[in-house]
C-alpha cells in the first residue's frame, strides 16, 4: 500500500483493503500517523463481512490522496509529541512463554493469561529471574490478546514483585484502594473495554487504546 504512493498522480487517489489492525496497532502507528498527517487518508468502511476463502477477517477500506499543500516531515515529527495527563501507568508484559531460558525454580511469580481466572489471579506455577522486567504495586491485569472475557479483568492487591507475560497488560495503581476502584470502573464499563479488542486474527488490545479509554472515563467522572 505505502509503496504504491510513488505511482499515484498529483490528483489521483488510492483505494485499498487493509487489515483493520493497521489503524490501531502500535507496530504500525508511526507509518499510520505519517500517512494521516502528510496525506488525506480516510477509512470508508470497517467491515467483518468480507470473506477470503474460508476466512472472515476484520478489514477496512481506505482511500488516500495528496493534500493541497505538502506537509513537511518536520511538522509530522512535531505532531507525534503529545501530552499524556493520565494518572495511571499502563504497561505491557515483556516476557514470552516461548523463552524457556528465563524460567527458574526460584524467583518472582510469572503471570500469563492462563492465570487470570474469575477476576482474580491464580497462583502461578512458573517463576522468572528476579532481574527480569517486573513491577511491585497494586494493579489491574487484563489479556493483551485473545477473545475478550470480563472474567479476565483481574486485580492484584499485593506489593510483592511479579513479572508479566507479553500477552498481559497491567494498569498500575498508587495503592490498593485505587486498584479496587479502577477494577470496578473497568467492569462497569465492560462494553467499552470489549470494544477495544480488534484484529484480523486473534483480537488484541493496545496500551494506547487503554490509555485513551481511561482518560475518557476520568473526564466523564469530573
**Widest β-sheet, arrangement of strands:** 4-13-10-11
Classify the secondary structure makeup into a structural class: alpha+beta
- Percent range of helical residues: 10-25%
As residue ranges, the low-confidence spans are 70-85
- Assess the beta-strand content as a share of residues: 15-25%
The sequence of SSEs as H and E is EHEEHEEEEEEEEEEHHH
Per DSSP E runs of 2 or more residues, the count of β-strands stands at 13
Rg, alpha carbons: 20 Å
Largest sheet: 4 strands, antiparallel
Secondary structure tally, helices: 5
Our measurement of the CA-to-CA distance between the termini, rounded to an integer number of angstroms, reads 42 Å
Average residue-wise pLDDT? 81
Shape: elongated
Could you walk me through the main structural features you see in this protein, from its secondary elements to its overall organization?
There is one protein chain. With 222 residues, the chain is of the alpha+beta class. 23% of the residues lie in helices and 25% in strands. The chain has helices at residues 29-38, 73-79, 176-188, 190-194, 207-221; strands spanning 13-19, 39-47, 59-66, 89-92, 103-104, 108-111, 116-117, 120-121, 127-128, 139-143, 154-156, 163-164, 168-172. The strands form 4 sheets. A 4-stranded antiparallel β-sheet has the order 4-13-10-11. Strands 5-9-6-12 form a 4-stranded mixed β-sheet, with no helix packed on it. Helix 1 packs across helix 2 (73-79). The radius of gyration is 20 Å and the shape is elongated.
Amino acid at each position: 500500500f505505502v509503496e504504491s504512493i510513488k505511482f499515484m498522480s498529483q490528483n489521483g487517489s488510492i483505494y485499498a483493503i487493509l487489515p483493520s489492525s493497521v489503524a490501531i496497532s502500535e507496530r504500525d502507528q508511526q507509518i499510520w500517523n505519517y500517512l494521516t498527517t502528510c496525506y488525506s487518508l480516510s477509512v470508508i468502511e470497517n467491515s467483518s463481512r468480507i470473506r477470503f476463502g474460508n476466512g472472515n477477517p476484520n478489514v477496512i477500506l481506505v482511500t488516500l490522496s495528496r493534500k493541497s499543500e505538502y506537509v513537511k516531515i518536520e511538522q509530522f515529527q512535531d505532531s507525534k509529541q503529545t501530552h499524556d495527563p493520565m494518572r495511571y501507568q499502563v504497561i505491557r508484559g515483556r516476557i514470552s512463554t516461548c523463552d524457556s531460558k528465563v524460567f527458574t525454580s526460584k524467583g518472582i511469580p510469572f503471570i500469563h493469561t492462563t492465570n487470570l481466572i474469575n477476576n482474580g489471579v491464580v497462583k502461578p506455577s512458573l517463576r522468572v529471574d528476579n532481574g527480569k522486567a517486573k513491577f511491585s504495586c497494586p494493579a489491574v491485569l487484563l489479556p493483551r490478546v485473545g477473545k475478550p472475557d470480563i472474567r479476565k479483568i483481574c486485580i492484584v492487591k499485593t506489593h510483592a514483585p511479579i513479572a508479566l507475560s507479553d500477552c498481559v497488560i497491567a494498569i498500575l495503581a498508587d495503592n490498593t484502594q485505587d486498584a479496587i476502584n479502577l477494577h470496578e470502573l473497568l467492569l462497569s464499563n465492560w462494553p467499552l473495554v470489549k470494544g477495544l479488542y480488534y484484529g484480523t486474527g486473534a483480537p488484541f488490545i493496545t496500551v494506547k487504546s487503554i490509555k485513551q479509554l481511561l482518560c475518557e472515563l476520568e473526564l466523564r467522572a469530573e
